[in-house]
């Protein structure tokens, strides 16, 4: 019961991810863009058949989707097991893990449903008349990135907390 808020967080990420992707699918034509902040941000509709940031996209190998789906399923189980084996009071770690979990499941749903992931957030800058884009991403990708940052912060803080505890002893 104490884990319920974290499970709800993961479910909220999944729900928001599905909802936003459906909005894009229904309202933005594939490969089109809607400017939001000129020379900085636009809403796009692209499909990513590869891994994060489009790595492996466009590969014609039938093994790539198997590796991506299998990897996502493995990550799912690792995160669930690690979450259950760590202290519930370790909020930063639990929030990070459940953000990653929600994001991984959100993108996995896309892969099983459409064979690709719907990406729609496009951040870019124009320098010297040329556009430089960060790879398009979505809510699930954002949750995974924020979750990873929280895990790194947690790992960085733990040795310091352990050292303080040892000094007191």
Please count the beta strands (DSSP E, at least 2 residues each). Answer: 4
Order of helices and strands: HEEHHEEH
Structural class: alpha+beta
- Largest sheet at a glance? 4 strands, antiparallel
Ends distance: 34 Å
* Computed Rg: 19 Å
Q: Biggest sheet, strands in spatial order?
A: 1-2-3-4
Q: Uncertain spans, ≥5 residues at pLDDT below 50?
A: none
Strand content: 15-25%
Q: Report mean pLDDT, rounded to a whole number.
A: 89
Helical residue percent band = 55-70%
Task: Report on this structure.
By secondary structure, the chain is of the alpha+beta class. The chain has helices at 4-27, 63-85, 91-114, 139-168; strands spanning 33-37, 41-48, 117-127, 130-133. It has a 4-stranded antiparallel beta sheet. The two termini are 34 Å apart.
């Amino acid at each position: 019961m104490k884990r319920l808020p974290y499970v709800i967080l993961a479910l909220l990420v999944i729900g928001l991810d599905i909802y936003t992707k459906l909005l894009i699918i229904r309202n933005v034509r594939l490969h089109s863009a809607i400017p939001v902040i000129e020379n900085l941000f636009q809403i796009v509709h692209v499909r990513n058949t590869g891994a994060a940031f489009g790595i492996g996209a466009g590969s014609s190998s039938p093994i790539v989707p198997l590796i991506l789906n299998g990897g996502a399923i493995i990550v799912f189980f690792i995160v669930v097991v690690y979450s259950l084996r760590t202290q519930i009071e370790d909020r930063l770690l639990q929030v990070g893990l459940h953000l990653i979990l929600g994001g991984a499941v959100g993108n996995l749903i896309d892969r099983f449903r459409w064979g690709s992931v719907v990406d729609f957030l496009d951040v870019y800058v124009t320098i010297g008349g040329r556009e430089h884009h960060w790879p398009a991403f979505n809510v699930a990708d954002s949750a995974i990135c924020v979750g990873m940052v929280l895990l790194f912060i947690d790992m960085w803080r733990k040795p310091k907390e352990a050292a303080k505890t040892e000094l007191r002893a």
